Amino acid sequence: AALALVVGVVPAASATPQAAATATAGLVPLPVLVEEDTRARPYVIRPDVSIVAPGAAAPVAELLADELRAATGYRVPVRPRGHGIRITVDPTARYTVDGAAPTAESYTLDVSHRGVAITARTPHGAFNGVQTFRQLLPAWAASPTPVKHDWTVRAVHIEDAPRFAYRGIMLDVARSFQDVDEVKRHIDVLSALKMSVLHLHLADDQGWRIEITNDGKAEGDPIDYTALTRVSGATAMNERGHRQELGRTGYYTQAQYRDIVAYARERFVTVVPEVDVPGHTNAVLHAIPQLNTDRSLPARDAGTGVVPWNGTANVGYSALDERHELTYTFVEHVFRQLAELTGGPYVHIGGDESHAMGHTRYVDFITRAVPRVQAATGVGTMGWTEYAEAGLAQGPGYWDGSVVQYWIGSGDWVRDFVAKGGKAVVSKADGAYLDQKYGPTTPIGLSWACRTDCDFPKYYNWDPTTTVSGGIPEDAVLGVEGPLWSETIRGGDQAQFLALPRAASILETGWTPAARKDVTGFTARLARLGARFAVSGVNFYESPAAAWA
Ligand code: TNX
């Protein structure tokens, strides 16, 4: 009779600071089921705390131990047996998630005065449970240096699983570069919000950011692939109109890129690498003379015979020659190496805004390039909305792993694409583009996609099944993504400022069942998360729409 249960969402009337201190306070994304016994004694982390994590749970436990050690100054050993914070990975674990069967990413989390138990069938599920547990801790637990604090955690029972597997954020490191440490920091911050995919936009008109070697070149291929980074790794966005600073140049060596991929993998984040073709290729054509023909765009400079570097924000003017066999040799070589370096299920071929070459030439390119990339890499291909406009349909196995990423335009193409068995990642520009200004006074950001009211509530209030005009079925949706283009961004702090808190809106849309989403509750939970950001030195926009705790 003493049980006071708070199940699922915070009731709408509870957006006051005091009422927000209920079971779900600070939890983003909102778990499927949260039950709190408000009379139960809390768990207290004491100096002798240990994390009990046998077998496959140990690496996940070490990540939690690192955070607890830093903030508490306690020793926090990770042991295979004993008492404390217990993390169990057991492929046969029996539990339910609001009555449903466990899934690969699901977990349960129980906190009582006797201890903590996180149970999952996979390490990824355990990692998800740990992220939720971290959000139950006082915000000071995110401190990089020891703090004297009362480390209590309220008693709670949580059952949780994601709605979609693909919960992505995209970083455009092409217009303006971000170094390895900056990218790792984004992985830390966003994986805590259960991001599962980091999409890296590695090449665009203004620069090329991933080392490609000549190893494994096709017979007779005359291209020197090292020119991509030697020449176009040294260029970036060079338009002062948006910002006082020029874009950052640079690139990842293959060793650095592998390091990013490994770091992401330890946090159960899949990297999706993108090299944008056949448009957005000025940096390619500037670096590789053999890809320049009478049909590639823009034309070579008559005097130098070279395609000039172009650091403006212009789009749609560049194109590879779709009739030039070497174009496909190039594409195969680049994506084969990218797929080997990444080891993930997809490579992203871009495919957006190839305006200058026109529709027919574009369709020819996609129709030839996609099967060749799929064959060369053995993985699925992703492309922006226009990719679906190529109407790919022929050939056995043609659709294997194919994904359209919806950003703009008619829903007809996307509906046609998924009707043929393809999947969709939804990142509609007006509501998911993290590079847009929050409002007219935001110092950085573009405003073509979202002109007014571009704060986190708008980025929260949409659903991937209905935001594509005409609608697409739930099972056609692989997930959602927030792209962060970098025309106006210089470095990791500015990236965080535009991404947060709106990335949280998108990641909750990817995780939480649609019926449990509620912007009022989200706002209250987000406000608590702000304290964590502040303590850990994460930059974010202090939106007036939230009462930051
Ligand atoms: C459109 S979205 C683009 C990018 C720009 C972005 C700026 C897409 C597939 N193409 O090239 O960076 O707008 O918001």
UniProtKB/TrEMBL annotation:
GO molecular-function term, one example from the UniProt record: beta-N-acetylhexosaminidase activity
Name the record gives this protein: beta-N-acetylhexosaminidase
EC number, UniProt record: 3.2.1.52
Domain Beta-hexosaminidase bacterial type N-terminal: 26-161
Keywords: Glycosidase, Hydrolase, Signal
GO cellular component: membrane
Protein family according to the UniProt entry: Belongs to the glycosyl hydrolase 20 family.
UniProt record, GO biological process: carbohydrate metabolic process; glycosaminoglycan metabolic process
Reactions accelerated catalytically: Hydrolysis of terminal non-reducing N-acetyl-D-hexosamine residues in N-acetyl-beta-D-hexosaminides
Domain Glycoside hydrolase family 20 catalytic residues, every copy: 164-513
Catalytic residues (positions): 353 (proton donor)
Upper classification of the organism: Bacteria, Bacillati, Actinomycetota, Actinomycetes, Pseudonocardiales
Keyword Calcium found: no
